[in-house]
Amino acid sequence: MVDQKISDAVVKRLPLYLRYLNYLQKMGIKTVSSHQLAKELGLNPAQIRKDLAYFGEFGRKGIGYEISYLIKKIRQILHLDQMIHVALVGAGNLGHALSNYNAFKQDNMKIIAIFDHSPDKVGKKINDICVRDISELPKVVEELNIKVGIITVPDYAAQEVADKMVEAGIEAILNFAPVIIHTPSYVRVHHTDLTTELHSLAFYLRQDELVGNS
User: Fold this and answer.
1) Distance in angstroms (rounded) separating the CA atoms of residues 188 and 170
2) Which of 51, 54, 93, 192 is deepest in the core (most CB within 10 A)?
3) What residue ranges do the domains of the chain occupy?
4) Pairing state between β 31-32 and 64-66
């Protein structure tokens, strides 16, 4: 792997490649070209080759990429070849859904601790995991070597939860709350707002209607 700064855009495309490669492997396909990948993913073949070239030479001219080998290398690049422990804060409906999401298990990312502040939720089990009080977060993060946190609380509570995660030693946060949270520069945060995504889709629906009527 080259010793250079990799852009966020490249890192975000790697999981897309991995997902489609996993699909091809399940279909019994052994090799794939950059043109095939580009066609299915809506990307440019040159972009795919450039992205992968940051990390080494994986393809062979005239043959393409060996799918099983490329899956292995991308998993290593994304650190999915090792177990990553995850803590989830917010035991509501979204928290329930994420804790049962099979992709976490397949990608060696495992939610092993769930927290909430509500007495009605603390002590109950979600996917065989007992919900703990949020006050236990620092102790559990240290004991279980948890590095990633997921926030699924209401917007008004998100920043406080993020602060607690940072204080506990969490190094990366996936935030589902519909609000921007602020953390020190050494803590990586990804925001996932379902409402924002739906609003974007609504815009493009209107644009398509205008184009169709023009």
Assistant:
1) 9
2) 51
3) 8-77, 84-196
4) antiparallel
User: Residue 167 above 70 pLDDT?
Assistant: yes
Per the DSSP assignment, residues forming a β-bridge with 125 are: 130
Q: Which two tokens stand for residue 38?
A: 């580009």
pTM: predicted TM-score of the whole model, two decimal places: 0.83
Rounded (5°) CA angle 168-184-151: 55
Instruction: Name the helix (H) or strand (E) containing 173.
Output: strand 172-175
Token reading at 193: 């707002």
8-77 has which fold? Answer: Arc Repressor Mutant, subunit A (1.10.10)
44-to-37, 41, 55 alpha-carbon distances in Å: 9, 9, 18
Provide the pLDDT confidence category of residue 148 given band limits of 50, 70 and 90: very high
Largest CA distance in the chain: 62
What would be the CATH architecture of the domain defined by 84-196?
A: 3-Layer(aba) Sandwich (3.40)
Task: State the Cα torsion 163-165-170-175 to the nearest 10°.
Answer: -90
pLDDT tens digits, one per residue of 187-196: 999 999 888 8
Q: How far apart are the first and last CA of the chain?
A: 50
Is the pLDDT score of 56 beyond 60? yes
